[in-house]
């Protein structure tokens, strides 16, 4: 059996959480599914709980499992775990407040991770497309498009626009739009 000095202060942390939640040792042991004597030994620093027991205790105490693992020394203090531990250790917060803050924080982190992945995927897809077809940049003030060819030399072309029919084609396009017209271009009103 290890001495209390060899173990991180997980027992005191669990005891503080239990007392903040105003539940007895027996109630916590029942909710977490661990024996009362074993939980007592954990709280006194005489036993080191397994990751599974820590997860059960975290669930029963309504704190995040990573915060519990961090306090037990199973995780390094990286990527926001210190925030979770600080929330869990704050004695001025109620259990409901701790749970809410933890859930909000973890939601923000997941959303930021998803956003970073989507941005990276979009950037990679854009880079792949640009590498295969050349880079195109619209310049709205000049009405031109600058295209970087595969050789890397920029070329300037007129900006594509709607097709402008000319000559006899223009007359046919006009008839299609306005209907039959007189020689002067006035609609006849007939079909």
Shape: elongated
Uncertain runs with pLDDT below 50, 5 residues or more?
A: 1-7, 147-151
Q: How much of the polypeptide forms β-strand, as a percent range?
A: 5-15%
Mean pLDDT: 74
Q: Which strand order does the major sheet show?
A: 1-2-3
Helix content: 40-55%
Briefly note the CATH topology name of the domain at 10-106: 434 Repressor (Amino-terminal Domain)
Cα gyration radius (Å): 35 Å
Q: What structural class do you assign from the helix and strand content?
A: mainly alpha
Largest sheet: 3 strands, antiparallel
Task: Name the CATH superfamily classification of the domain at 10-106.
Answer: lambda repressor-like DNA-binding domains
| Helix/strand order | HHHHHHHEEEH
CATH architecture assignment of the domain at 10-106: Orthogonal Bundle
The total beta strand count reads 3
CATH level 1 class label of the domain at 10-106: Mainly Alpha
Intertermini distance: 102 Å
Helix segment tally: 8
Protein name: Transcriptional regulator, XRE family
InterPro entries: Cro/C1-type_HTH, Lambda_DNA-bd_dom_sf, TransReg_Diox_bact_type
Organism: Salinispora tropica (strain ATCC BAA-916 / DSM 44818 / JCM 13857 / NBRC 105044 / CNB-440)
Pfam families: HTH_3
């Amino acid at each position: 059996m290890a001495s209390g000095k060899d173990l991180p202060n997980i027992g005191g942390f669990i005891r503080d959480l239990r007392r903040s939640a105003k539940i007895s040792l027996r109630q916590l042991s029942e909710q977490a599914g661990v024996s009362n004597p074993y939980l007592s030994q954990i709280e006194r620093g005489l036993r080191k709980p397994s990751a599974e027991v820590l997860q059960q205790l975290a669930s029963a105490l309504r704190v995040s499992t990573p915060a519990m693992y961090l306090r037990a020394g199973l995780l390094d203090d990286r990527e926001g775990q210190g925030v979770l531990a600080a929330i869990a250790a704050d004695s001025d917060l109620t259990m409901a407040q701790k749970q809410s803050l933890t859930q909000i924080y973890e939601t923000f982190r997941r959303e930021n991770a998803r956003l970073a992945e989507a941005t990276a995927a979009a950037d990679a897809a854009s880079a792949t497309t640009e590498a295969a077809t050349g880079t195109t940049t619209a310049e709205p003030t000049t009405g031109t498009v600058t295209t970087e060819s595969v050789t890397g030399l920029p070329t300037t072309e007129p900006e594509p626009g709607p097709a402008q029919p000319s000559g006899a084609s223009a007359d046919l396009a006009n008839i299609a739009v306005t209907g039959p017209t007189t020689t002067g271009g006035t609609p006849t009103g007939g079909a």
